[in-house]
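Data availability (excerpt). The following record was deposited with the supplementary files.
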Amino acid sequence: MKIINLSDRPEFKEQVTDWLWQAFGSENSRDFFASVVQSSLSGADLPQTFIALAGETLAGTVGLWRCDLISRQDLTPWLAALYVDEEFRSQGLGQQLQAFVLEQSRRSGFREVYLYAEFTGYYERFGWQYIGDALDYPDKPVHLFRQFL
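Predicted structure:
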């Protein structure tokens, strides 16, 4: 498995967009996810989108974003939009994608990374610390996590 920046293989941007939209979006939010993915190809420090390839097959994706939770814009950066294709689940790829983002964050000089999830019990297994609750727009309760680098 190889993890690279999507900017190195932009031909996968439509599939990544569809995955994010289907996994995290709503009926009319595909354009939002397309915009995030496209902005990660601009060459800026953030946002960045990474992809996991099994040979030439797209296996998963994860983002490193400036902000992933509107109600907590005081926190940055964020591990965001972690997605593993069904064929590659339960093989440790989610953990590999997390580790890759943490290493990229460390290299960029960040001291901590945040994420949020609607569930608990998964990210804690990989060293993420629960730091409280917040609201995703407009009123969905979520759990906040942090990992020191």
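Summary of structural features: Residues 93-107 form the longest helix (15 residues).
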